[in-house]
């Protein structure tokens, strides 16, 4: 087969929908075969039947556009069904070429389509079929070649079959993607603008989508990672920093302008230096898989900024490449990983395997829908519709072997060939569903647990989805850590004065044993966070009580209303110096609480120096100053001081093993003197009783004993550390607090007082055990046992 010509139907003659002068017909009429067939569809639907969709006159089911007019293409040798995707290699007789392999269970024919620099297309039929995988070796096809697939088969949406060879499809295993998804009507497998929208998804659109969609790129495997040293930071020692590749670097003054917003920008010494100075051990990158922008955003002149709309699970998003998109993005990503590893920083990817950018039945046909809709997606009993456990229109069927293979192949690829150190799974509960319910013995979790590569990397679950029974915090098995939203809610509520008592706060500060002390799980199963990309920034959390998402174009309906925030007396920015000082104090309180808590802390880029989104708590479509980190804040001494405090707290945590325990506290006496490894105190200096836990309170004292840390160091020696007393007071008036005396301590040294703008008390300030100390309103005091 050879080159195609746009504007021709399957017989090679002018098609009724492609040659009419612009404006002479409505767009939806030019997309279908004839008015008579349109009427037949409507009549059948009105009669309750499942009609066959209209096709071009004389068309043969399964034949692609221009198929009969195609001259012979280049030779296609049998090739191999393994590995999937496009792999450049040496074939028979030492001939260099590329092996193409695509799983498409229900397909009747598959063509790989090659595109030259001018966009001219050459089609090559893959005639070999092995275990539902279509494959062939194309001699002479080298790295840099752009390609896609056309998959032939039944168009029968009523039974879930949505094959449409007019649509060029992205290889699910493409390791580089050239171009962007703009989503004109031609990209939809059905007639997007059909006047009767309730049946629009059943009417096939026969226009060629190739001129409007990105292409996969053949990539050369030429990297062995022999010069890379992975940090391999233990979970208990980890401090995670969530950032957006583009948003973190777009306004960084130290990053050259041509590198801003790119992988190379994040790898630049100026960007890495901030991470090292802050002391974080891992960056958690918002999605970097190739993603598409939603149609409703493009219509409003916006873009998907966060990237939770994946369409290519093997390809680094081309929009973040400074060096090119014909495969260069792969090398640039690898160099970024190496640079971060050299600085002792791990790379964790936020991955979206729960759904794809193809959305529901009215979404575009970009890849999996056209390859085998029924094979890749969860469908309802009415197979026209998708089971949507994600709120994004569709759900990948991770319980099926070929889908599970795609996911695990992708994960292993990013570990072994791209160098990453772990993954945070968006809406992980959707992946853990078996038939319908979330199942912790599901195929996905079972395969991950036994995989020799994946079980050794960091695995973080967002332990919920939007379906019934989807909230699974504390339920994921060993090996997994989880985003702990109960930590977030408790800490926010405490500092805004909304907790009825301190029971929940006590659990969250000490590692959430009520959620994770089972099955051999450890305190680091809890990823503690106060803010994340989704929601208010830390500064906005203390500046706004209501979301302000008008710029998103959805009339402020999007984003959560449950912010658990407090504006400290004024909504939004204010010149009131008293409110400004209180807000900065609250920020110090929140950061200090987070970094003193047992578990794995997660910071969000820019929170450490007062980044704001102006009250927008859902900035997913704000690829602008709202969604970008504002580095100019560091020029303000007040925000620079906050950053200094964050770095000091991270350093304190890394210096003291009692703050990053590898085992849960017992709360029982560990020695003859009756000291406990963890003790709780009231402001009266007495240990908390059962009654105290249930009494209304806005203050809590936490004593951490450094003498009783379980475990040993690498040489088998007992781990010992200082002991600390943390006093947390969320009330609006100063509080007299009696410091616990012997045997807890004869004397304390005050290390930190968050009521102070300069953050720290004077070095060497000491207080006797049994002495009354005035704790300022809304503050945290950290004291070290001095004897």
Automatic annotation (TrEMBL):
The alphabetized UniProt keywords are: Glycosidase, Hydrolase
Question: Which positions are tagged coiled coil?
Answer: none
Bias type Low complexity, positions: 50-71
Q: What SUPFAM superfamilies does this protein map onto?
A: (Trans)glycosidases (SSF51445), E set domains (SSF81296), Glycosyl hydrolase domain (SSF51011)
**Region Disordered: start-end pairs:** 1-92, 549-571
The answer on whether this UniProt entry bears the keyword Hydrolase reads yes
| Biased amino acid composition, Basic and acidic residues | 549-561
Question: Which Gene Ontology BP terms does the record give?
Answer: glycogen catabolic process
The Glycosyl hydrolase family 13 catalytic domain covers which part of the protein? Answer: 242-653
One Pfam annotation, family name? CBM_48
Q: Which GO terms describe its molecular function?
A: amylo-alpha-1,6-glucosidase activity
What family does the entry list? Belongs to the glycosyl hydrolase 13 family.
- This chain's protein is named Glycogen debranching enzyme GlgX
Write the gene name: glgX
């Amino acid at each position: 087969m050879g080159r195609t010509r746009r504007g021709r139907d399957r017989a090679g003659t002018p098609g009724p929908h492609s040659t009419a002068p612009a404006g002479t017909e409505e767009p939806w009429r030019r997309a279908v075969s004839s008015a008579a067939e349109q009427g037949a569809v409507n009549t059948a639907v009105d009669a309750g039947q499942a009609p066959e969709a209209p096709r071009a006159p004389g068309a043969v089911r399964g034949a692609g556009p221009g198929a009969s007019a195609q001259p012979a293409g280049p030779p296609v040798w049998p090739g191999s069904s393994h590995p999937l995707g496009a792999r450049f290699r040496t074939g028979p007789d030492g001939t260099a070429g590329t092996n193409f392999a695509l799983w498409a269970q229900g397909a009747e024919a598959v063509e790989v389509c090659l595109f030259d620099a001018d966009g001219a297309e050459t089609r090559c039929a893959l005639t070999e079929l092995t275990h539902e995988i279509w494959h062939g070796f194309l001699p002479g096809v080298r790295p840099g070649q752009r390609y896609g697939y056309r998959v032939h088969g039944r168009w029968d949406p009523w039974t879930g079959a949505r094959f449409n060879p007019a649509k060029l499809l992205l290889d699910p295993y493409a390791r580089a993607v050239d171009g962007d998804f703009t989503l004109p009507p031609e990209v939809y497998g059905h007639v997007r603008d059909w006047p009767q929208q309730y049946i629009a998804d059943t009417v096939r659109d026969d226009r060629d989508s190739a001129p409007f969609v990105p292409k996969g790129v053949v990539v050369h495997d030429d990297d062995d990672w022999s010069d890379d040293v992975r940090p391999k930071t233990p979970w208990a020692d980890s401090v995670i920093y969530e950032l957006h590749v583009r948003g973190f670097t777009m306004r960084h003054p130290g990053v050259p302008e041509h590198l801003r917003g790119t992988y190379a920008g994040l790898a630049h010494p100026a960007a890495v230096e901030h991470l090292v100075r802050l002391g974080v051990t891992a960056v958690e990158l918002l999605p970097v898989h190739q993603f598409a922008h939603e149609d409703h955003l493009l219509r409003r002149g916006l873009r998907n900024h966060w990237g939770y709309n994946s369409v290519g699970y093997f390809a680094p998003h081309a929009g973040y490449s400074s060096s090119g998109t014909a495969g260069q993005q792969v090398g640039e990503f690898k160099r970024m990983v190496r640079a971060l590893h050299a600085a002792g920083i791990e790379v964790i990817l936020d991955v979206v395997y729960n759904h794809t950018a193809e959305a529901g039945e009215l979404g575009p046909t970009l890849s999996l829908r056209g390859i085998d809709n029924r094979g890749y997606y969860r469908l309802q009993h009415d197979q026209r519709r998708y089971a949507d456990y994600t709120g994004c229109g569709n759900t990948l069927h991770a319980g099926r072997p070929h889908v599970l293979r795609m996911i695990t192949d992708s994960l292993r690829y990013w570990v072994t060939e791209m160098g990453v150190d772990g993954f945070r799974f968006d809406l992980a509960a959707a992946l853990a569903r078996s038939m319908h319910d979330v199942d912790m013995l599901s195929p996905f979790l079972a395969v991950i647990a036994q995989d020799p590569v994946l079980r050794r990397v960091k695995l973080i679950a967002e332990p919920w989805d939007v379906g019934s029974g989807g909230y699974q915090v504390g339920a994921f098995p060993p090996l997994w850590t989880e985003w702990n939203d109960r930590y977030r809610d408790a800490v926010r509520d405490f500092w805004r004065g909304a907790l009825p008592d301190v029971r929940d706060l006590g659990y969250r500060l000490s590692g959430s044993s009520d959620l994770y002390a089972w099955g051999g799980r450890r305190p680091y199963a809890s990823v503690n966070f106060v803010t994340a990309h989704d929601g208010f920034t830390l500064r906005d959390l203390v500046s706004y009580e209501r979301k302000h998402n008008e710029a998103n174009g959805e009339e402020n309906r999007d984003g959560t209303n449950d912010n658990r925030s407090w504006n400290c007396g004024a909504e939004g920015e204010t010149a009131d110096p008293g409110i400004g000082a209180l807000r900065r104090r609250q920020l110090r309180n929140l950061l200090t609480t987070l970094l003193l808590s047992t578990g794995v802390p997660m910071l969000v880029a820019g929170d450490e120096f007062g980044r704001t989104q102006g009250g927008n708590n859902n900035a997913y479509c704000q690829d602008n100053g709202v969604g970008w980190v504002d580095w100019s804040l560091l020029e303000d001494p007040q925000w620079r001081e906050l950053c200094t405090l964050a770095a000091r707290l991270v350093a304190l945590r890394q210096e003291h093993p009692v703050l990053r325990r590898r085992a849960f506290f017992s709360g029982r006496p560990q020695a003859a003197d009756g000291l406990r490894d963890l003790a709780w105190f009231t402001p009266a200096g007495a240990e908390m009783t059962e009654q105290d836990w249930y009494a209304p309170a806005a203050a809590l004292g936490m004593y951490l004993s450094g003498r009783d840390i379980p475990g040993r160091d690498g040489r088998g020696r007992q781990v010992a550390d200082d002991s600390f007393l943390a006093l947390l007071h969320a009330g609006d008036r100063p509080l007299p607090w009696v410091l616990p005396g012997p045997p807890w301590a004869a004397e304390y040294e005050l290390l930190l007082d968050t009521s102070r703008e300069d953050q720290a008390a004077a070095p060497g300030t000491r207080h006797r055990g049994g002495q009354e100390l005035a704790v300022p309103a809304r503050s945290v005091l950290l004291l070290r046992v001095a004897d």
